[in-house]
Amino acid sequence: MRFILSLAILTLSLTAENWPGWRGPRGDGTSLEKNIPTIWSPTKNIAWKTPIPGKGHASPVVWEDKIFLVTCDEARQERLLFCVDRVSGKILWKQVVLQSPLERVHRLNSRASSTPATDGERVYVSFLDQKDMVVAAYSLDGKLLWRARPGVFKSVHGYCSSPVIWKEKLIVNGDHDGPSYIVALDRANGNTLWKTMRQNRTRSYCVPTIFHLGGQPQMVLSGDRSVASYNPDTGKNIWYLNGPTQQFVASMVYNSAADLLFMTGGFPQHHIIGLKHDGRGTIDDSGKIMWHHRTPNWVSYVPSPISAGKYFLLVNDRGFASCFDARTGDAQWAGEKMSRGAHASLVSAEGLVYFTFDDGTTRVIRPGKKLDIVAENSVGEGVFASPAISQGNLFIKGDRHLFRIGKK
Questions:
Q1: Residue 222 near residue 262 (C-beta atoms within 8 A)
Q2: For the structural domain made of 18-405, what CATH number should be given?
Q3: Among 200, 222, 306, 359, whose Cα sits 20 to 30 Å from the Cα of 248?
Q4: 20 and 119 Cβ atoms separated by less than 8 Å
């Protein structure tokens, strides 16, 4: 019995992953973990649920036995960072990161929408102080280590810019209604290491995603009237596609089977693009776009898509879900109405994709040529935040509670 228990613990430790930032360890919503729950309800398979005060659409992040998440106490005008014990659900500490007049936001945004990031030594957060971007680092026991104001940020829709960890850097996107930029800070002290100005002055909320492509790291994002790639070490532009529209929110993903990047989104026009990543300079007329869809019910604006095997899946803001062949762009099934609305990004584990909707339901879907719904679940309250997967559990931040889904 002792041997079997030790073997089980070893197996879990070999497959368990931290979920250290926006969309997990690879920034694309994928988990390598096994035996993630597929069935739950408000009274079934919930290890714990913890009331979390305030409002926030940011996702929880997980490092070993600590969960970090942010909210805004609007009555007190406080932007808060919480640390929760992963095992028990107990709130270990909270810190007021910022107390400042409430910025104007879109009705579907919050004042705590930027997902934190952690490297296991510090936890990093990002908020808006009126017209200044504020980035701060805390120790894992809640001590403020540094605070930086790397640039201004103006938008009638509010703020969301989740920090991204790359080597010794913390990278934050500053696409706004002014001179836009991307900035890399030193994780140790908050000093600016590089700052790259963008070509336009248009608000977007895309979190950069970093992939190793063509023998080099590429930091890719849509936004600021463009789709672009940068070297995350230096901030220098690698390639640049003008348009195809003005504003973007969803992060980009990469499919290794098709060897293509995917962009979805857009306002006022709608686009899904399968894009080669080997361009240099401006690639507008270079033939790098492999396929392109513009059907409104297929295109996601806010929720980020996911790559799963040979498929590319997404859900749009009005609750229509779609699955495409990643290489050809052919719709396997598309425009399937599943809910009245969706803003959480997709996550996946063991070949299954989790679609979480605004009403708190999650549909677990097996990608393929035909729609295959494995399970439908609910936490019993609204959900705007994207789920996290770590240590064999699914973590969902609802309107009022943080849920740990799985065995106790």
A1: no
A2: 2.130.10.10
A3: 359
A4: yes
